[in-house]
Specification:
Length: 330
Amino acid sequence: MSPPLDWLSRLLGMMTVRGQLELRCAYGAPWQVVYTDSAAGEMPYHIILNGSAVLETPGTGKPQNLRAGDIVMLTHGSAHILHDGGGARPKRVREREELNLIISENKGSGPRLDMLCGRIVLAPPHDRFIRAYLPPRLVVRTSAEDAHRGDAQAQLEGLVALMRTESNAGNLGGYAMMNALSAALFALALRVAGETAQSGKSGGTPTGLLAIAGYPRLAPALAVMFNEPAHPWTLSELAELCNMSRATLIRHFQDKLGRSPNDLLTDVRMALAANELKRPGVSTDAVAESVGYQSVAAFRRIFTQHMGMTPADWRRAQVQTLHAADHAAD
């Protein structure tokens, strides 16, 4: 018998997450880095080790000032610009290869920036889940100067320190280590963001699952939907767990998540079903039942609406992807 898990552990357990640390940037002002929209499933991140930067994400809010210890994740893969904020024409950047890492640098003589850049890669359909339930721009602060700093922030600072060390030295296995740390960065950053939202000291208005994490009255509904998704939960049952009326439950979900409780429950079920369909020898009927559908026809209809393909087509696509990866490895 396995114990119930918190919603974030369940969410991360549903996903296939890979990380890749790509660049260490060493710039003197004036400098600027421009990123176009990322490919599906790719989520860029940046860690400010020393110095400061201004982040611009067109269409998703005002420019944001970043300082040493800040981590920013573009969870929707959005185009963005990082610059020194001075407005001068940036110096030309050149890249050189070091063991396990690429160094990007310029000849600017102004205030210095030291920054790690990489990306988190999520397999479908989990990339769409993240885009649906997390804000497009997630900034997490780890600075010891933060008056509201908690244990998770200290842990994250320690992880960043380890990434800095690995990027400084051409250690044996360093590339694999930096990528593994990048995947851990994703999990720990979400923990810090969730705890910050819970404390009510996020410095802004959280959205998506992080907003619900910051509203403890909704926690019981969130917990059971992630822990027992196959249960035929009704709005009345979920509202009773949260000690509120159905209307109040629906209003809070819409205000904080932008979706209904049923929408979230269905998305959790479909993400789990997509995982189960990858397993050889598991019938569609068994998958449907495992995620709460007694009617296989209803499951096929809803899965097709969410995924844009039938369960059988999804299964075939995953087998083809696996075979293609095996051939590439050969």
